[in-house]
Amino acid sequence: MGGDQGPIPVVAGMARVAKKDPDVTFVVHGNKDELKKRIKKYKSLTDRCEIKPTTKVISMDTKPSSALRNGKDSSMWSTIETLKTGLANVAISCGNTGALMATAMLNLKKAPGVTRPAIACLCPSPNASGFNVLLDAGADIKADEKDLLCYSIMGSKFAQNGLQLNKPRIGLLNVGKESHKGRSEIKAAYDLIAEHEEPNGYEFVGFVEGTEIFSNKVDVIVTDGFTGNTAIKSSEGAARVIRNQLRQAFAHTLFSRIGGFFAYTSLRRFFKRIDPRRANGGVFLGLNGIVIKSHGGSDAVGIEAAIDLGVKLARSKSF
Amino acid sequence: MGGDQGPIPVVAGMARVAKKDPDVTFVVHGNKDELKKRIKKYKSLTDRCEIKPTTKVISMDTKPSSALRNGKDSSMWSTIETLKTGLANVAISCGNTGALMATAMLNLKKAPGVTRPAIACLCPSPNASGFNVLLDAGADIKADEKDLLCYSIMGSKFAQNGLQLNKPRIGLLNVGKESHKGRSEIKAAYDLIAEHEEPNGYEFVGFVEGTEIFSNKVDVIVTDGFTGNTAIKSSEGAARVIRNQLRQAFAHTLFSRIGGFFAYTSLRRFFKRIDPRRANGGVFLGLNGIVIKSHGGSDAVGIEAAIDLGVKLARSKSF
Question: A143: Cβ–Cβ under 8 A, 6 or more apart, which residues?
């Protein structure tokens, strides 16, 4: 219920997954009549959805603390509870990120050894898997050296299970590659992450810069949530400007329109590859359960990607 | 001398500017014989260059502290000194950013009222000027609320003089628009920047997110140097991936090649618009003198853009 467009794209996304994956079933939380009506529209969803009726909706501007105090009858709370009781294997929400993290933390608790949970995001990359993992993408605004080590271990595990990598390469985000650069906690984290390489099955490649987030020099990029969130959003902003300018370029002259006609399938493939909806879904790491935060403005394709990711992680037994 | 490719692209960039702008002259610092030979290759540079011979070169991995101790006979030091003595109106370097900032700080001193100098970067935007200003892009790794206010005032002045804006719109970078989000110094800066709107001739639009760095909702984006540097570099990385994938898309099939042929001029215009070299040049703000840091890997086109920017700022009397 809590996404920008309510349940419409959510149910449409479920239907897309249901059509291709016969073993997935859904527990849906929110206004019963509305959900029933929506679900009826899709043949693929027949007999595969259970509705948990709830009355409250956590809005996008609700503070996390208020979501904990007053959120008990909300669709968000009910979603997390279903995961806690074992009725669901994955919880997915398009709602308020801060409220979702707080609700998940309170109900699911931190996993053993975790200092601070984090949100992992998939970034398009030329690596074989097609993606790099960046964390923390915004669960918290700060991280000390122990948290950054914790992120390295969680990110490495996520890359092993979500991207099927044997020995993920971890990079620590900094403003330069030289060892004298950066804030003190980042320099301290450098040593800690290097020390813990062996037992955790990752390869530490050292400091990486923002330019390398989308490169094949690394599989996992570790940073605090403030920096990670800004890096992801800035890149999205840059990609949006480029897409718009490319569309304008093709509409500009008769020749360019003819060119666009001939290059249509290639351009479509190109736009699909850089489509940010494909990488939708921030995964909460460090909790006792798999929680995925889908973009608030997600359409059916975005929701589908988030569910696909959740299914993949739930099927990977060691996650 | 200190850029990735030494003086070759520097002199080539000077020649490009000299050809179109008859009133610009140059003071060049470095190996005398090498520079003389290089300059001779360009007719447009005849009788317009003075060479200051120097022996040392500050390398890219020199620490700022060591550049101050041992840098006196370097091309970098000599460049800043020429600005200090008034022989030049602008100093431009492709060398080590940290060393350049330290050398400039020591020799030029902070301007009155400045708490912390900053580097301002131009980001492509759909605004009429074609650019937004982001600062700090990496002069320092931290900034408190007073520094962020200082950046707002300097950034506003820079936008007035460099982009000819009457009343620049200032945005403070944060992980969300809601007032409860972000680190404590950012919340404190919000109030300070709002209070100082009137006397400084800017309009404060409040918190902006990374997605808006390249938007027309704002003219100046204010943040600390760690975040700003990461935002710029992440966007560069994303843009690079997109450019490569677009090139691949057009090479993919015969049809797409035909399409590329017809759309050639539009595509060329597109690639020119998103060319990062056009926005080359980080401007050091808050010092007694105009210093521009060009990208270390700049080619002649990038150097030309940095010199053009310097000329524009030097001619704007109030800067």
Answer: A116, A118, A136, A151, A185, A223, A224, A225
CA distances from B193 to A267, B143, B149, B173, B207 (A): 44, 14, 5, 12, 11
Same domain, A192 and A149: yes
Domain containing B313 equals 1-109+287-319
| Smallest Cα distance from B105 to chain A, Å | 18
Q: Residue A309's domain is classified under what CATH number?
A: 3.40.718.10
Would you say residue A86 has pLDDT above 90?
yes
* % of chain A surpassing 70 pLDDT: 96
Q: Tell me the pLDDT band of A11, cut-offs 50, 70 and 90.
A: very high
Which pTM was predicted?
Answer: 0.87
pLDDT tens-digit series, residues A243-261:
887 777 777 777 777 777 7
Q: Is residue B161 part of a domain?
A: yes
As beta bridge partners, residue A50 has: A27
Give the gap in angstroms from C-alpha A315 to the nearest C-alpha of chain B: 31
Taking only residues 280 to 309 of chain B, the set having a beta carbon closer than 8 angstroms to any beta carbon of chain A reads: none
Residues A274 and A300 in one domain: no
Q: Taking all residues of chain A, what is their mean pLDDT, rounded to a whole number? A: 90
Segment 242-281 of chain A within 8 Å of chain B by CB? 242, 244-246, 248-250, 252-253, 255-256, 258-267, 269-270, 273-274
Residues B235 and B303 in one domain: no
The interface pTM score, or ipTM, of the predicted complex is 0.85
Same domain, yes or no: A101 and A122: no
Residues B144 and B231 in one domain: yes
* Residue B4 sits in the same domain as residue B58: yes
Query: What is the total count of domains within chain B?
Result: 2
- My answer on whether A262 and A308 are in the same domain is no
| Domain end position, chosen among B245, B269, B296 | B245
pLDDT for residue A317 is more than 90: no
| Residues facing residue A204 across a β-bridge | A170
Yes or no, beta carbons of A252 and B245 under 8 Å apart? no
The pLDDT value recorded for residue B30 is 95
pLDDT above 60 for A234: yes
A169 and A261 housed in the same domain: yes
The token pair at A50 is: 């259970």
Residue B264 lies in a domain: no
